[in-house]
Write a structure and sequence with these properties.
about 450 residues, alpha/beta, nine-stranded mixed β-sheet, eight-stranded parallel β-sheet, globular
Length: about 450
């Protein structure tokens, strides 16, 4: 007897979406077909049954003292995941102290999340200038699913253990070492020397708007860094993923390199597909991020590449902060990250499927399948017999207006507050167990686990 059967939903399978039943036993998908039976039944009539989101880029951990202890944290961050239809996250190695750059700091992260997870969590290890002597190997042995580095300036050099961006030698040597693990390196691609100097000169000239902030980090500074990352990947044989592309020109470089045989993918985020530069100053610093949100022409180019397969993944890049870090007199000084993980699935279903005709199969690919494949999470990302029973049940054509009190975040910050989203996450299921439902909210259980590769 199956433990659970989801009946009568429109189920997204690899080759199409069909109205059928899905059965679960011992946390795995056991059957797909008609008239299945189980101990528990969920009637999904009128709902779309999607794989739960595999978010390939999220900042969740709260560790390190000071403002970082007031950060998101696993308790609230993974509650927001559950409410948003996310069942697996790939967590970044920075924004906590110590950053995840060796075996000890990876274990510290695992310890901090004990009994707090509502989603399954894989970790990226950091590539930084100070972990080239054994740290990368320790992270591999500790079970990271990949690595992350910054070409843009990041971190606080006055804080021991904070993350640091790479110089060209660290990038080259780190890529050589990572290539030997077979795992993927994700890169934040902006030219540090250019963006730092352009930003400084803009402020000295009196710049004080988000539109001016965007202008201080022009498209070419992103594209140059993408080209450099791809070239180093060719030289070293390292598999790479370009993080949060904001412009079609960067994606074009990835597509070209892939056609030439380079093992490279790229991702983008809902905020780049929803907002444009002209929206930012009216909304405020909740929309500030790096790389920044670009103009309408860039956004339209991103949608084209997303629909036709040039962009592999949509990720949240959930990068929360405390309210004081957004509430700055000059937005150049505000925290450069967006809280977004709770509203990726509903926003993308509305904007992609309902408004632009994205197929349900493509929706599942960009929200779950491709990220699971890229980071080697073999049990995730597909509705297929034998895979983990991770589902997001979506209620189409059911608009609601997001309010601050709807958010599970520790700090109720989101640029989508007050926006109407045209569908709802009706239920989230992790390995056969409901973690959220419209009727009952987020469950009290913490059934998430760390995934070690």
């Amino acid at each position: 007897m199956n433990d659970l059967v989801i009946k009568n939903g429109k189920v997204i399978l690899a080759d199409g979406a069909v109205v059928t039943d899905v059965a679960v036993k011992d946390g795995k998908i056991s059957q797909i077909g008609q008239d299945l039976e189980g101990t528990e039944t969920i009637d999904a009539t009128g709902l779309v049954v999607s794989p739960g989101m595999v978010d390939g880029h999220a900042h969740i951990t709260s560790m390190g003292g000071g403002y970082r202890d007031q950060w998101e944290g696993y308790e609230t961050g993974t509650a927001a995941c559950a409410k948003g239809g996310v069942t697996t996250i790939v967590e970044m190695p920075l924004n906590q102290i110590p950053s995840t750059t060796d075996g000890a700091s990876l274990q510290a992260k695992y310890d901090s999340g004990k009994d707090q997870l509502r989603v399954d969590t894989a970790s990226l290890g950091g590539l930084v200038p100070f972990n080239l002597d054994g740290g990368i190997q320790e992270l591999d042995e500790g079970g990271v699913c990949g690595y992350k580095c910054f070409l843009a300036t990041c971190g606080d050099r006055s804080i021991k253990g904070d993350f640091q961006n790479v110089d060209d030698y660290s990038l080259y040597e780190g890529m050589r070492q990572i290539a030997k693990t077979g795992k993927v390196l994700s890169l934040h691609c902006e030219n540090a020397a250019l963006t730092d100097t352009l930003g400084k000169k803009a402020v000295e000239a009196g710049a004080h708007t988000l539109k001016e902030f965007v202008a201080s980090r022009p498209v070419f500074t992103e594209v140059e860094a993408v080209r450099r990352a791809i070239f180093f990947a060719k030289v070293t044989g390292c598999r790479i993923n370009i993080c949060h592309c904001t412009c079609w020109e960067a994606v074009a470089e990835v597509v070209k390199a892939r056609e030439e045989g380079v093992d490279v993918t790229c991702e983008t985020c809902p905020h780049y597909l929803y907002f444009t530069t002209d929206d930012l100053d009216a909304i405020g610093a909740t929309t500030k991020c790096t790389p920044p949100i670009r103009d309408k022409a860039e956004q339209e180019g991103l949608w084209k590449y997303l629909l036709d397969g040039g962009i592999s993944m949509v990720v949240s890049d959930h990068s929360p902060c405390t309210p004081d870090l957004k509430d700055r007199e000059n937005p150049f000084d505000a925290w450069g990250g967006i809280s977004s993980i709770q509203n990726c699935m509903d926003l993308m279903f509305d904007e992609g499927v309902q408004k632009r005709g994205m197929s349900l199969v493509r929706f599942a690919e960009v929200m779950a399948t491709d990220a699971a494949d890229r980071f080697g999470l073999a049990q995730k990302g597909r509705i297929e017999v034998g895979k983990d029973a991770d589902f997001c049940l979506i209620k189409p054509n059911s608009p609601y207006t997001l309010k601050a009190e709807d958010l599970e975040y520790r700090n109720k910050i989101s640029p989508w507050i007050g926006r109407t989203i045209g569908c709802q996450v009706a239920r989230t299921i992790l390995r056969g167990k409901t973690t959220y439902s419209l009727e009952d909210g987020v469950t009290a259980a913490h059934d998430g686990e760390f995934i070690l590769r």
